Amino acid sequence: MSSPDLTDGYVAPDQAIPKIGLFTMLRLGVFNMGLGIMSLLTLGVLNRVMIDELRVPALVAAGAIAVHQFMAPARIWIGQMSDSKPLFGYHRSGYIWLGIVSMAVTAFIAVQIVWQIGSRVEASGWSSGLYPWVGLLAFVFALYGLALSSTSTPFTALLVDVSDDETQSKLVGIGWGMLMVGIVSGVIITTIVLKSLGDTPTLDELRSSINRLFIIAPSIVCGLAILSTFGIEKKYSRLQQRSRQRDDQITFGTAIKVLTASRQTGLFFIFLLVLSLSLFMQDAVLEPYGGQIFGMAIAETTQLNAYFGMGTLFGIVATGFFLAPRLGKKRTIKFGCLWASFCLILLIVFGTTGDPRQLMLGVGLFGLASGVLTTGSILLMLDLTVAEVAGTFIGAWGLAQAIARGTATVLGGSLLSLGKGVVESFVVGPVPDEQLLPAYGLVFGTQAVGMLIAVAIVSRVNIREFQTTAKNAIATALESDMD
User: pTM of the entire structure?
Assistant: First the structure.
């Protein structure tokens, strides 16, 4: 058996590749801004139109849209494809461009199916005959999920390719901060395009305005994606320099062997699951918490999202530029987990006062912790990624987060229902809203404990062991394939 030629396709380190500057980081961040706009269109605008204007049952509407989350396992395969099979001459950019255009097209097709459902509901109400249309809508959202994976996974792998230890934290801070900016931009675009609608628009008026929105906004997003990434890979990518193997030697089987070779990979996968569950479990209960325990109106509880978003944005930028470079990635994550745990307990304590201002303060502080954890975990994720199969690893980490994000909402609602059942068992007659604090406390308390468990798991993550094991796994897997 002969050893593979490790010099073939290898670019010597002295062949300098320029470092990305602040302008290029901001330019790359524009891509995430586009994803934020698309997120608002599908999860915000389309979801609301289906439920409020078209009278589609909430479970049906949310279930059809949520199908795109279940396509997350494809991230691993798509990531490996971008590692090994260039598209349009690029490892990452070709997949990014094809994916973002596919997102725009499938989103518009989904809207057209929604109108078919809406017209039938308007004509004869909700009936079982509509379920084939709902199934078709779910299928289109499955394609939308594949398109999202096809663009977001290679983009994150591109961030690995173009960054180094010096630029990584700033790049992540800018990129994920721009995601929040994108959501705000989506609100502005939506307001401008839909401003002509009255309070009670007809279905035809609604169809015309929403169709226009789903043409204009996705077109802007596609333009932003191409503008953000064009020429970046060619000029700044270190993929070939860091990779010692030829592209065609890294097969999907080899990539999976490398992915599963180190126990550190499993540890970090579990860490991401626990962290994401603990971070997003309150999504389904926070606004009801404000309404039942603090007596806030619907408009007031909606503002909680703004406080959380502002805290998250500040936490992302501050961590990327100041906290992570000084504390290091693991310490940053531990600090974020402990801070988040404290904030969750604070939310329970504030519930005893019933003061909405305290709730908004607590939510803002928790958003700050969320920003710290988002940036810290992404930075550690990039360290636990092998350059030769970066796309495969990014796909695996995306899968962990998608699984946890989907499970968190269900788990939060289940814990709240369990808590309410326990409270009701001790009270004769109807339970006053203010006595439901222990039920909400069960959700927030479980999250706080989860954060502490995440600290214990991340303490066992060893970057050096991972990198050593991964390099050995690549050599062993390639030799095995050649045999």
Answer: 0.73
